[in-house]
Amino acid sequence: MIVKSLGIRNFRNHLLGEYEFGDGLNIITGPNASGKTNIVEAIYYLSLARSFRGVEDADIINHKSEVSQIDAMVYEGQIKRNIRILITKKGRSVLVNGKKVSRLSELSKCVNVLLFEPKDVMLFRGSPKERRNFLDINLSKQFPIYLEYISRYEKALKQRNEILKSGNIDKNLLDASTETLVKYAGPIINYRAMFVKDINDILIKITHALTGVRDKIEIVYRPFVNMSSDYQSVALEAFNRSLESDLRHKATSIGIHREDISVSLNGKEIGTYGSQGENRLVALALKLSPYFMITDRDKKPVVVLDDVMSELDPKHREQLIKFLRKFEQVFITDTKLEIEGSTQIKL
Ligand SMILES: Nc1ncnc2c1ncn2[C@@H]1O[C@H](COP(=O)(O)OP(=O)(O)OP(=O)(O)O)[C@@H](O)[C@H]1O
Ligand SMILES: [Mg+2]
What we know:
Blueprint lengths: L1 E10 L2 E7 L3 E6 L6 H13 L8 H4 L6 E10 L2 E10 L2 E6 L2 E3 L2 H7 L2 E4 L11 H15 L1 H22 L5 H41 L5 E5 L9 H11 L1 H7 L11 E5 L2 E2 H4 L2 H13 L13 E5 L7 H11 L4 E6 L8 E4 L1
Parallel strand pairs: 3-13, 3-14, 8-12, 12-13
Antiparallel strand pairs: 1-2, 1-4, 4-5, 5-6, 6-7, 9-10, 10-11
Bound molecules: adenosine-5'-triphosphate and magnesium ion.
């Protein structure tokens, strides 16, 4: 995929911005607070109709305005799409070639963005939620049914927690919500296990390309119960065992919403033992790995790297740039970077 042009209005500090991008490397440079991250935030917004900064839409709209607008021309091979997103404090609307789109999955089919942001250096040190998000976002984009399973699971989880919180527990309702959790957790575990298995091989190759060293790198996913022919009864039994504690804590303590993945470098947990630079490179490798799972060249995601270069030493920077030249389209923000043969956008 290629984002050919971007027009933004009242988007954060940009009152009006028009940009033309090239395929390959696009470097967005400018001083601090000039609006570089805001531009890539708009590009990311095209893929999921939300910011990656975990903020409300109201924060995105320029302080002096009521409505933000993003216009983009996106190519999937020969297919050209015009995307328009209007963001107001009351909600947003998405138009693809002038037609309103209501399902998120339809939008992420048109634009797929893989992002690396500065806080990803904490990916292995921070909470499991960030790592689950990585799995959930990528699996949902690849398999819309996965998103469906997750939403149904979350709905049942909310119900179960409400029952646990209520003073007078209805055992039938509680059992029903536990059964729903078990039902949807099954396929979710299968998808997560498959994804992690596929990513393992890719991760080894990317890390090698980025570091130049053949490190042993492994990503492991341990589901809350193992998949087997008697999964249903084993999972129900696990929920049963934790029921007493769940009742005491008024929350569901096991399930796919508590799972995690761990990554080790040469046999040692990267979050605990890895240096800052190793954490950065392995997190980057992991976040880029879904790119190589998509085989159709026209559907390859756009890659966005916000502020990643300045923290790397010259050797790793050079290796990363060499690696990035393989991608269809990449956006890099930096205060002063210049790369031969790239499209330069100066703010
Ligand atoms: N809703 C908004 N309305 C107006 N300005 C905003 C809004 N949201 C953020 N800004 C401002 O946009 C400016 C640019 O932010 P941005 O994060 O894009 O800078 P940057 O170029 O990436 O800087 P750095 O090099 O420090 O990362 C900031 O000064 C910020 O205060
Ligand atoms: Mg920035």
